[in-house]
């Protein structure tokens, strides 16, 4: 009886040892996978929401399910350089940018709607810099006058939370769906800021007269 008890205890220790090893390997695999499917933020165009050096999880499985105000990884320009920006205009939306007291006023009418909104993002008023040209040209870039433009089918209009220091759609125009790598709403590093990335943007309804 005692021999069988010792044998059973040894078997339990053996199973626990293997279980701990498997758990460790799975945890290690999860960390490696998270780092492999992540983006390292470079620059200051999304401050203070995310910072230079932050690492964000790329939800590549959501690249075809992008919503307004999602943070995304996009490939832009001839070189298809990776950037991190916020989706403001969806396909079919009408957008324009003007300035009041030196602060940006982004007006947006959602696709299929007659209701005009102002995009409110508290980060913009904190980050006003020298990039304050009105918008938009037909390709979605900043121009010389406040002109409403419709986001083409299969494209998005992106902005940075650091309004005055961001190269975004005001610089490179509309971004095609095919150039969206995924949605970024989880911060992996630094560990002290691990978790969901805050979303400060929303739509606020305005009177029709204010849109003119």
Automatic annotation (TrEMBL):
InterPro entries: LexA/Signal_pep-like_sf, Mito_IMP1_subunit, Pept_S26A_signal_pept_1, Pept_S26A_signal_pept_1_Lys-AS, Peptidase_S26
Bilayer disposition of the protein: Single-pass type II membrane protein
Family: Belongs to the peptidase S26 family. IMP1 subfamily.
SUPFAM superfamilies: LexA/Signal peptidase
Span of domain Peptidase S26: 20-184
Main location: membrane
Top-rank taxon, per record: Bacteria
E.C. code: 3.4.21.89
Keyword vocabulary terms for this entry: Hydrolase, Membrane, Protease
Alphabetized Gene3D superfamilies for the sequence: Umud Fragment, subunit A
Annotated Pfam families: Peptidase_S26
Taxonomic lineage from the root: Bacteria, Bacillati, Actinomycetota, Actinomycetes, Propionibacteriales
Compartments (UniProt record): Cell membrane; Membrane
Protein name (Swiss-Prot/TrEMBL): Signal peptidase I
Listed CDD domains: S26_SPase_I
Entry annotated with the keyword Protease: yes
Reactions the enzyme catalyzes: Cleavage of hydrophobic, N-terminal signal or leader sequences from secreted and periplasmic proteins
